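Regression test case RT-17, inverse folding.

Input:
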């Protein structure tokens, strides 16, 4: 059973930083690309960043380039999203994602709120 559990969200002031974590289990983590998505109220879910199975970012959205960094630790079955220079537009629920044989699996999400 694929399980993705996000953590690390919270309230942060504009200009601040957070690091999100996603602990994965139930599949061969090191064999799959992983992604972070986010969704704001009333908006569609958008992909933020993706990383190859062995590491190395494959994608970052224009809205986060230069501010967010995706990474992974295959020994810990965990993917991270380091978020710097946060602004109120980054306020969203952030989700971890893996695609396995064409099926999307999601975590429960973690709320990030950027506000003074």
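Golden output:
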């Amino acid at each position: 059973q694929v399980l993705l559990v996000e953590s690390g969200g919270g309230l942060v002031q504009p200009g601040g930083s957070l690091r999100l974590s996603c602990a994965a289990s139930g599949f061969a983590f090191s064999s799959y690309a992983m992604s972070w998505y986010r969704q704001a109220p009333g908006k569609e879910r958008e992909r933020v960043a993706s990383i190859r199975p062995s590491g190395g970012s494959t994608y970052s959205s224009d809205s986060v380039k230069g501010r967010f960094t995706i990474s992974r630790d295959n020994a810990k079955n965990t993917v991270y999203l380091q978020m710097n220079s946060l602004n109120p537009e980054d306020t969203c629920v952030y989700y971890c994602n893996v695609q396995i044989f064409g099926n999307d699996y999601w975590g429960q999400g973690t709320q990030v709120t950027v506000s003074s």
